Automatic annotation (TrEMBL):
Catalytic activity: dihydroxyacetone phosphate = methylglyoxal + phosphate
Name of this protein: Methylglyoxal synthase
Pfam families: MGS
Coiled-coil features, chain-numbered ranges: none
Active site: 61 (proton donor/acceptor)
Residue spans crossing the bilayer: none
Source organism, top-level taxon: Bacteria
Residues annotated to bind substrate: 9, 13, 35-38, 55-56, 88
BP-aspect Gene Ontology terms: methylglyoxal biosynthetic process
GO MF annotations, alphabetized: methylglyoxal synthase activity
Entry keywords, A to Z: Lyase
A single GO cellular-component term on record: cytosol
Organism (species): Paenibacillus algicola
């Protein structure tokens, strides 16, 4: 079982809901997290249970980032709106940086999200289970 987070900017929330609906059977076997409104919208349209954090501008991105830093997140789907300035851009950049530091698969658009979810469905991300035993940058 993987820990998976969903984050979507306002103009991408509907796209996220449709994506999760399309792959609901894949996600149902995993522990799911999201920022506030995104999680609510997904739960309204699916049978999935999602642990919700604050909305992104109120610290939700940072809460997910904390899980990344503790090696408690395996995959993030973050549908960003590249055409709209975000008031919490530093938090977004910090999350993206943490994913790079800790080697967390991260999709920021629907095409990459689909590739990752198909890999997840095939079991290609099983290497993440090994990573749970070792935290990058700690005791190395």
């Amino acid at each position: 079982m993987m820990n998976i987070a969903f984050i979507a900017h306002d103009r991408k929330k509907e796209e996220m809901v449709n994506f999760v609906l399309a792959y609901e059977s894949v996600f149902e076997d995993h522990k799911l997290f999201s920022t506030g409104t995104t999680g609510t919208r997904i739960m309204e349209q699916t049978s999935l249970q999602i642990e919700r954090f604050a909305s992104g501008p109120l610290g939700g991105d940072q809460q997910i980032g904390a899980m990344v830093a503790q090696n408690e997140m395996d995959l993030i789907i973050f549908l960003r709106d590249p055409l709209m300035a975000q008031p919490h851009e530093p938090d977004i950049n910090a999350l993206l940086r943490l994913c790079d530091v800790y080697g967390i698969p991260l999709a920021t658009n629907i095409a990459t999200a689909e590739v990752l979810v198909k890999a997840l469905d095939r079991g290609d991300l099983g290497w993440r289970e090994l990573v749970h035993k070792y935290k990058p940058g700690v005791d190395q």
